[in-house]
Structure formats: C-alpha cells, structure tokens
Design goal:
With about 240 residues, the chain is an alpha/beta fold. The chain has a single domain, classed as NAD(P)-binding Rossmann-like Domain (Rossmann fold). The protein is about 45% helix and about 15% strand. It has seven helices and seven strands. Strand 1, helix 1 and strand 2 form a beta-alpha-beta unit.
Length: about 240
C-alpha cells in the first residue's frame, strides 16, 4: 500500500460504527491510513474493521462512551503509547435528541446532548492535542449541520450544539495555525442517507438522498487537499 496517499498516516474517526463515520473510516483506510474506530457498539465497529481489512487496509477498534471523560483520557493514553502522531481527527459522533420547540426542550436531555455534541468534542481535542501537534500535517474535521448556521423551528437543541461545535473547532484552528501544522475544517454533509436523518424525517424516501459514502469521499478529498485552516464545505449530491 506504499503508493496510497495516506500511507503511514494515523486517523481517528468518532461515531465510526455506521453512516458517515463508518464510510469515512473505510475511505481513509482504503487510502492507506491506519484508522482507529470509536463508537459505543462493539459489534458494529468490528464489522467496519473487517471491511477495512478486507479491502487491504488496517484499523483498530476502540469501543467507548464519549460522554465518559475518563474513557477519552484512557484512549488517548493507549494511542500515545503506540503511535507518535495523529494526522487526522474526524469528529463525527453526535446525537440528534428530540425535536421540540424551545420552551418544550427537556433540560436533562439537553444536558446529555450538549455533553456529547460539544463537551466530548472539546475533551477529544484536548486529549489528542499533543499528538496532533506532533504531526507534520494534521487535520481536524468536524461534521456539522446546516441547522447550526441557519435556525430551523424545533431544531434548537441540535442546531445550537452544531453552532457551538463550529466555533469550538474554528477557534482551535486559529489558535494552532501559527504554532503548529494543524488545520481545521468544517464539513456540512447536507441531506445524507443515515439513521439520524431517517429519525428526523421518517416519511422521506431514503433513495432520494445521497449515501454516506459520498460525504466520506468529500472528507478524504478535503484532508488530502491544500485547503487552508478554517475551510468549510457543504457536500451536495
């Protein structure tokens, strides 16, 4: 696999058990990177790992609950003990929560949503910051949503979390651009055939929206490009 563009590179993809995360992991693996797969579901992670291996790539699964800060720290410790640098960090894991009007948002559910969608993302960046700095060309890619940029009725909780993620990752990029080789990017996948979208739009024909592999290819193209830090893309069909 020495002729592949990501040979010798290390990637970590969150929410890698299905959908955009799984397809992105496969794309990075097919391009030569060793991919660390994280999600809560071991069985689904093993299926993605097997698919990467079957295609000639390499991967390691790391089942964990990202809302558990100690788990993130243990993962970072284990990865640091085996590799020197992290080249690609894809922040894909998120939860939709219930779609509700602002007055009707459940406080406990909102707290859980923000813990995963923004708190855990900051914890991951913090835990892997030394390894990202050690890379000669690190990329942090955050998967966002259009509702984080434009308000939509009943999407306040999820939209607010994505708006916060965009700012969090963008600020990290600004902080790093003059002292490291880290670049940050935001990817808005647009309408994509995922379990989360099926939950949000139960009456939609899934055949009418693009598959997650299209987004995965866009992410691969982005991290192998010379796009500047802060670059944002929206993936169309």
């Amino acid at each position: 696999m020495t002729d592949l563009p990501l040979t010798g590179k290390l990637a970590l993809v969150t929410g890698a058990s299905r959908g955009i995360g799984a397809e992105t992991a496969k794309a990075l693996g097919a391009a030569g990177a060793h991919v660390i797969l994280t999600a809560r579901t071991t069985g689904a992670l093993e299926e993605v790992e097997e698919a990467i291996h079957a295609a000639g790539g390499s991967a390691t699964i790391a089942p964990l609950d990202l809302t558990d800060g100690e788990s993130i720290g243990r993962l970072a410790g284990a990865v640091t003990g085996r590799w020197q640098a992290l080249d690609y960090l894809v922040l894909n894991a998120a939860t939709l929560g219930s779609l509700a009007s602002v007055p009707a948002i459940d406080a406990k559910e909102l707290a859980r949503l923000l813990t995963l969608n923004i708190g855990a993302q900051q914890a991951i960046i913090a835990a892997f910051d030394p390894m990202l700095r050690a890379s000669s060309d690190a990329r942090v890619v955050a998967v966002t949503s259009s509702v984080g940029a434009k308000p939509r009725a009943y999407w306040a909780a999820y939209g607010a979390s994505k708006a916060a993620l965009d700012i969090l990752v963008g600020c990290y990029g600004e902080e790093m651009k003059n002292i490291s080789a880290i670049r940050t990017h935001i990817v808005d996948p647009g309408a994509t055939r995922t379990a989360m979208r099926a939950r949000a739009f139960p009456g939609e024909d899934p055949a009418t929206v693009k598959g997650p592999e299209v987004v995965a290819q866009a992410i691969l193209n982005l991290v192998t490009s010379d796009a500047p830090s802060g670059h944002r893309i929206r993936v169309e069909a």
